[in-house]
Each structure stands twice: as C-alpha cells, then as structure tokens.
Write a structure and sequence with these properties.
Helices cover 64% and strands 0% of the residues. It is mostly helical and 137 residues long. The longest helix has 38 residues, at 99-136.
C-alpha cells in the first residue's frame, strides 16, 4: 500500500465543506425554535389548569431564583478563636445570624485555625533548625 496521500496537505476531500445546519443538535434546536410559540401556549394552559410542573418551568424562566445576598454581621472579634466560635453559635441560636451564615462563619474560623496552626508549626520548625545549626558550629 502506497503512502501517497490522496489529497495534498491543506487540501480538503470535501470541497463543499461541512453541511450547514445538518447536525442532529441543530436540527433539534430548529424544530424546537419553530414550535416554541405552541410549546409556550401549551405550557401556559397547563399551568392555568393546575399543572405544577408546567407552572414551575414558566416561573423558573421568568423569575429565576434569588441569589443570597450578603448581610452585615456585627460580632466582637476579640478573644480566642474558641471565644469567637462560641459567640457565633450564641448569635446564631439567638436568631441574630441566619443558620447558613453562622455555619459559614464557623467554617471560616476552622480554616483560620488551620492556617494559624500551620504557621506556628513552620515557625517552630524554623526555630528548631536554627538551634541545630547553632549546635553544629
């Protein structure tokens, strides 16, 4: 079998190129777009007659779900991380902070404690290395 190519580099075997709008996805999209007025009319009628799923589809498209908005939180930031965590829990239980925000704050404190712990370990390791170097001298 010869290694000669049927076509030269840069030359296509399909002079007309890929057929436009002939892929299954584009055919389906066009069919849906063409039928959209009827589809919407039927969804509206079904929603009016009590079909909850149809109503949900319409409402979700017209009124997307609200995104949570940040709210200012006033908590004392003094004391240990444990003190701060206890204050967050107290404020959450008292209804001053929504539970999801309280959970996020506790998670943030936990992350902060890990950062502090790693920094303390790095500092301790540095001191040990310095002490070992001084002993070698």
């Amino acid at each position: 079998m010869s290694k000669d190519h049927l076509y030269k580099p840069g030359q296509t075997g399909n002079a007309n190129g890929r057929p436009k709008d002939k892929t299954p996805a584009t055919i389906i999209r066009k069919a849906i777009a063409d039928a959209m007025p009827e589809i919407l009319a039927q969804l509206v009628e079904q929603a009016k007659s009590g079909n909850v799923t149809s109503a949900k589809v319409l409402v979700d498209r017209v009124c997307p779900p609200l995104k949570p908005q940040a709210m200012p939180i006033n908590l004392p930031v003094n004391g240990t991380l444990a003190d701060q965590g206890a204050e967050i829990i107290r404020a959450t239980l008292a209804g001053q902070i929504p539970p999801d925000i309280g959970a996020q704050l506790i998670t943030a404190l936990s992350g902060q404690s890990k950062i502090i712990e790693m920094q303390e370990m790095a500092d301790r390791l540095e001191r040990i290395q310095q002490q070992l170097e001084q002993r070698r001298k």
